[in-house]
Amino acid sequence: MGTSFSLPNMAELGLYKLLNDNKKSFFDVNINGCFGKMATKSPVKDTTAGHWEIAGIVLSKSFPVYQNGFPKEIIEEFEKQIGIK
C-alpha cells in the first residue's frame, strides 16, 4: 500500500489497524473509536442478503431470481404505476 493518500479521521477510528501491513507509520495514531473486521455467516453472496445480514438476519438460501427477466405482468404493472413505458 502506498502513502499517496491520507485518511486521518478514518485512521483515528482504527482503519489502519485492520490492515495486514507492518508499516508502523500507519499505526502511530491515537485511536479515538472502535474498529473491527467482520466475516459473513451466510452462504448467500448477493447485495440484498448482505444488507439483511448487517441487520442481523442470516439467510440459508438465496432470494429467488428471474433467470429470463421479469414476467410481462410485473413489467406492465410497474409501467402503469410509474406512468411511463
Characterization of the model:
This protein is mainly alpha-helical. It has 2 domains: 1-36, no CATH class; 47-82, no CATH class. Helix content is 33%, strand content 0%. It is built from 4 helices and no strands. The chain has helices at 8-12, 24-27, 47-54, 72-82. It is elongated and about 60 Å long.
Structural class: mainly alpha
Number of helices: 4
Q: How many domain regions? A: 2
Which regions have little confidence, pLDDT < 50, spanning 5+ residues?
Answer: none
- SSE sequence, one letter per element: HHHH
Give the CA-based shape. elongated
Query: Main beta sheet: strand number and arrangement?
Result: none
Kindly state the number of beta strands: 0
**Helix coverage percent of residues?**
25-40%
Chain-wise SSE layout:
Layout: H1 8-12, H2 24-27, H3 47-54, H4 72-82
What would you say about this model in short?
This protein has helices at 8-12, 24-27, 47-54, 72-82. With 85 residues, the chain is an all-alpha fold.
Labels describing this entry:
about 80 residues; mainly alpha; 2 domains; elongated
